[in-house]
Design a protein that fits this description.
It is a single chain. By secondary structure, the chain is α/β, with parallel strands linked by helices. The protein is 44% helix and 12% strand. The protein contains 20 helices and 17 strands. Strands 3, 4, 5, 6, 7, 8, 9, 10 and 11 form a 9-stranded mixed β-sheet that branches. It has a 5-stranded antiparallel β-sheet with strand order 13-14-15-16-17, with helices on one face. Strands 1-2-12 form a 3-stranded antiparallel β-sheet. Strand 5, helix 13 (378-385) and strand 6 (389-391) form a beta-alpha-beta unit. It is globular, with a radius of gyration of 27 Å.
Length: 672
């Protein structure tokens, strides 16, 4: 009996020690949460009062801490059995590591303005090194703050251990609360305000752990590919939404009969010679600050003037929230796979694309990028499409200017030099039609310019011209580097068009201009904002201009271009395709006839668009005519989108099993 009692009481010193330690630990967590809110409210102007914001942030941090605490207590008791001294040392080390991780995740958010999740695992170590290096590495301020955090934690621990006599039962209460939260899946408080405010008040460590857990252990649980042998067609009851009929869902889950129609012919004059096509993809070009009625103000005066004499889709969507998705979605209207199509690397299956389908029609294709095309596996993808010329930073000769380096790292050559390189190497007199893909880089973090004073001045002048109030000016100045880079790229595009207009091939060229995604380093108002980009189709061949409020996406570009060329020149293209898109919608009124997933990061496939609704991570949003969104309680619509997304996930998972997009009979036609 005495022995049993001794076994029960031997852990009381451990629990008592943890009770006092937990107070210091939680105190530091609250201090970090409050510091994060204060910093971001000052720098980014989060739209919420100080005390409520700090209170919600601390409460969410406490919930995250309680989810972790039972595991720490269990580890303490297990190790205490062998050595109390070792147990205390181990737990203190874990607490310090936890605080370091919290600080790093907060620092990432304060820079990127989105919480870091499992997208970390979607990048190679080389890609991470390049991204961190180009962004300036780890700033000395972060090292100083980290040192201060660890010192404060040591002071707090010393005080609580010496001055506070905490009951050992507190550890039991913490354990009980933690287990309750674990089993009830309490995630925290959602403020229901702007997306930036919701992200700011989210516990970053808990968010990262949850997304990592889902990535490694539950990534495919929502898509049981063995549930049955039939993958249902998309829901047919939603009026106006395009429905596909698939050919062989078991072997080729994405293969269906092409149904894209030609909607572009009415806007173009006939040209006997096939036109040159220039796809200009602008890094970070979001609709939030582009063209008329941009809610953050119009910081692209040239693109705005160009859109007024173009075909202009104001409610256009990127397929992804990062650059990894842009080339596969625009050129091939391709599915995402697990971490984006590019991450398949050497396992990318044969597929149709704008490049390999135009090659047999005589088109010469080229790609221009001021950075390293190996990033995100862009180069292997382009080579597989059959690109004729691949020009990136490694091919630029001497005489071209790079973006200013930080700690020896730079993204590559600035946008003026990128366009100059294109103009220097693309001949004006050519008998074969040209397909050029240009991807810019100057509007990427850390937003360094070769003439920063000039574009900072233009930024100030632009705010005056837009008639900003004092508060708006103060808010925008928090992102002066971002806005200056936008104005810089807009000017670079203006200069490119000015030079291009003097070329002999200008009058037979069609330009398509869009963003790869919306720049996340300026706070976003809602989830859909990350994907909201413009599409401008400009050409001297246009018979008339038009502006469309209907929704289309990157997935729709290639199907529409091919349908137009087929109708205009009588060319034959495969009748069976794997396009994710259905073609551009030229309805002038606001509507959405498309039905597709969106992928924010390489590991976040949680968004789905159907009709005027957007499903994000199980929450339904209703899309407004300006493509803002608000939470919807329409359970029928939420169920429809959930079912449609589940069906798409099943299709995607089945394809990952087969690794086949096209049967051999179609694959052999690529490039022929």
């Amino acid at each position: 009996m005495q022995k049993h009692k001794a076994n029960n009481t031997r852990y009381i010193p451990a629990l008592s020690w943890f009770s006092s330690t937990a107070i210091a630990w939680l105190g530091m967590i609250w201090l970090l949460a409050a510091g994060e809110v204060c910093y971001n409210k000052i720098v980014h102007g989060a739209g919420m009062s100080w005390l409520p914001a700090i209170g919600i942030a601390c409460l969410n941090a406490t919930i995250g801490w309680l989810r972790l605490a039972p595991w720490i207590i269990l580890l303490l008791l297990l190790s205490w059995t062998f050595s109390p001294r070792f147990a205390r040392t181990l737990i203190l080390c874990l607490i310090f590591l936890h605080l370091i991780a919290r600080l790093l995740l907060m620092t990432y958010f304060s820079t990127a303005l989105v919480p870091l999740g499992a997208d970390l695992y979607g990048y190679s170590w080389k890609d991470i090194q390049q991204t961190v290096g180009a962004a300036g590495g780890v700033p000395w301020q972060s090292v100083l703050i980290l040192t201060a955090v660890l010192l404060l934690q040591w002071i707090f621990l010393s005080i609580t251990q010496k001055k506070l006599k905490t009951p050992w039962q507190i550890s039991l209460i913490i354990t009980a609360l933690g287990i309750t939260i674990l089993f009830t899946d309490v995630s925290g408080i959602d403020t229901g305000r702007s997306q930036f405010t919701r992200d700011l008040l989210t516990d970053k460590f808990n968010f990262f752990v949850n997304r990592s857990w889902e990535h490694f252990f539950h990534g495919n649980e929502d898509a049981d590919i063995y549930a049955d042998s039939y993958i249902p067609d998309d829901d047919k009851t939603t009026s106006g939404v395009i429905v596909r009929h698939y050919i062989d869902e078991t072997s080729y889950p994405f293969l269906y009969k092409d149904s894209a129609i030609d909607v572009l012919s009415p806007f173009f004059t006939y040209s006997k010679a096939p036109p040159d096509i220039v796809l200009l993809i602008v890094e970070g070009l979001g609709r939030a600050f582009t063209n008329d009625q941009a809610y953050l103000g119009n910081f692209t005066p040239f693109l705005d003037s160009l859109s007024r004499k173009s075909l202009y889709w104001e409610n256009f969507l990127s397929a992804g929230g990062r650059t990894f998705a842009v080339l596969p979605s625009i050129l091939g209207s391709l599915p995402f796979g697990k971490n984006g199509f590019l991450e398949l690397g050497n396992d990318m299956p044969p597929h149709f694309s704008l490049v390999n389908l135009l090659k047999p029609k005589g088109y010469h294709s080229s790609f221009y990028y001021g950075g390293d095309a190996r990033f995100d596996n862009m180069a292997p993808f382009l080579r597989q499409t059959g690109i004729d010329e691949l020009n990136d930073g490694s091919t630029f000769p001497q005489g071209y200017t790079k973006i200013p380096p930080v700690n020896g790292f730079t993204w590559g050559y600035n946008d003026h030099e990128l366009f100059r390189r294109w103009l220097d190497t693309r001949p004006e007199d050519h008998s074969d039609p040209q397909l050029s893909i240009i991807l810019t880089v100057s509007t990427h973090s850390p937003f360094l310019l070769n003439d920063p004073q000039e574009y900072t001045r233009r930024f100030e002048d632009r705010m005056t011209k837009l008639g900003f109030t004092g508060d708006e000016i103060k808010s925008h100045r928090n992102y002066k580097d971002q806005y200056a880079s936008i104005l810089y790229t807009d000017q670079a595009i203006r200069d490119f068009f000015t030079a291009y207009a003097k070329r002999k091939d200008f009058n037979r060229t069609i330009f398509l201009i869009t963003g790869d995604h919306r720049m996340p380093e300026i706070p976003m108002r809602d989830k859909i904002d990350r994907f909201h980009v413009p599409l401008i189709v400009y050409s001297p061949l246009l018979a008339r201009h038009a502006q469309f409020a209907s929704i289309s996406s990157h997935f729709d570009i290639t199907p529409s271009l091919l349908a137009w060329l087929q109708h205009t020149y009588g060319w034959q293209f495969p009748g069976e395709v794997t396009w994710m898109g259905d073609g551009l919608d030229t309805a002038r009124a606001f509507r959405n006839i498309h039905n597709s997933p969106l992928m924010q990061t390489k590991t976040d496939l949680v968004d789905y668009i159907k009709g005027n609704n957007h499903l994000n991570n199980g929450t339904l949003f209703h899309l407004n005519p300006d493509l803002s969104e608000e939470t919807s309680t329409d359970n029928d619509a939420r169920q429809q989108l959930s079912s449609a997304m589940d069906a798409w996930r099943q299709r995607n998972e089945r394809w990952l099993q087969t690794k086949m997009l096209l049967p051999d009979s179609l694959s052999r036609r690529i490039g022929k």
